[in-house]
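URGENT: need a sanity check before tomorrow's submission.

F., can you look over the MFP transporter record below? I want to be sure the sequence and structure line up before it goes out.
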Amino acid sequence: MRRRSVASSLLATSLLVLTAPALAQPASAPTIGAQPDRAQPPAAKPPQADPTGTFAAPSSTGVSQELSGLRPLNIDDPDLKSVPPATRVLSNWRDAVTLVEARSPDLVIAIQEIARAEGLARQALAQALPAINASGTINQSLIPGTSFVPGVGLVEQRLTQLNTGISISQPLLAPRVWYGVGTAKLQTEIARMTAEDQRRVTFATVATGVVNVVTAERVSEINRVGLRGSLELLELTRRRADLGTGTKLDVVRAEQDVAAARSQIVSADESLRKTREALGLALGFKDAYGVEPNLSLNDVESSLRTLCSPGDIGSRPDVRAARAQLDLTARSVTDAKLAFAPTATLSSNTTVSHVVQSEFTNTQWSIQALLTIPLWDGGARYGMLKSARAQVEQQKERLGVVERAAAVELTQASRGIEVAEQSRRVATAARDLAAETTRLTRVAFEAGTATSFELVQTQQQLRQRELELALQEFEVVRAKISSLLASANCQH
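Structure tokens as predicted:
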């Protein structure tokens, strides 16, 4: 029994030396979360992290020299290579704001809608102002006419007649037209509120897209770390089977773990590509947009606070636009009633006609006042009035929906910060437990009561918990951005 125990100890010590490279996180992996200005979880005490971000393996002083002739682990797999960078890269948040202002399709459409509303308002005002028109005609006869000239007789002539005129028209009584001017101005204000809300939504979309890209890159990194650990465990399992201490079933299980890790990499990489493409679309590009590793998410949050001022639900632009839309539909009822009102127009016409062949010139000037009293139009005005009243009731319901949705969104966004903080605390506790488990497993391994495979697995779990904690840090930033923009005013 003592001889078997010594042999087992020697085998376990040999496996420890073999697993030393496996316990190190690959230095070639992108260190997105290693920047100093991003929120980072505190490093776990066991194992200690070196300046390159890799985790140091447990010490095996005196044993590694004796077994240095054993073949070390050399994991080389094409799936361990990171996803190629995007064709376009976002270096800082200021560049994102510039691109949003210049190229965001939704924001550009909303801004042009303001210009369109201003044009319609000018058209409404023009109907209440004087209209001045000038006209001129030339009539040339093609078949000569015959006229009698005293002392000459019959003379054939081709007459050329010149006619000019100026007309002026001024509405004297046009209550519906005058009321329409105020309605057009209100439509312009609604367009401005809609553009302001679209700016808020666009900023939220782009900021969330940036966080999603960073998170997807981190998830891709996590999966490659997991694949490396699975490949290392498979290699150790095969070596153990070659030494006669393992079974074929252990190898098959390790191969299944590698297959599952590869599947996660495929889905995570596709998710990363989609998040880059979504960010590119939000910025107005058809190409995928990546994020520089040194872009600070904390700077994104602080920059948004300078661009958007927080407020309450009532001051949110979409809520204000919905209330203004209710006022607009209420004005349509009054507009329908004004269709029953009479109208009066004053017009003046001046015409001058001249025949070139004769010296005859005719000048006329007329003034006309027209009073129109609508009597019966088949019931069209009554139908318009009924339709306007129905639209008012519809808009009241829409306003209620917008207010309730905004209130729930603000509540969820505020609660999201607390949930993200709680999740981060849970992730921190899980990371600390994984670190303590790794330390105890190391002690048990040195005492001969734990295997090297247990040590590898606990180290992999520690790396996983570390990266999950970093992801929760990103979730906290995302929650803060969502809470800020849930009730913010982002004026241009």
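My own read: The beta strands are 88-90, 131-140, 145-149, 153-157, 160-173, 289-291, 309-310, 343-355, 361-372, 488-489. Residues 189 and 305 are 25 Å apart (CA to CA). If you see anything odd, call me.
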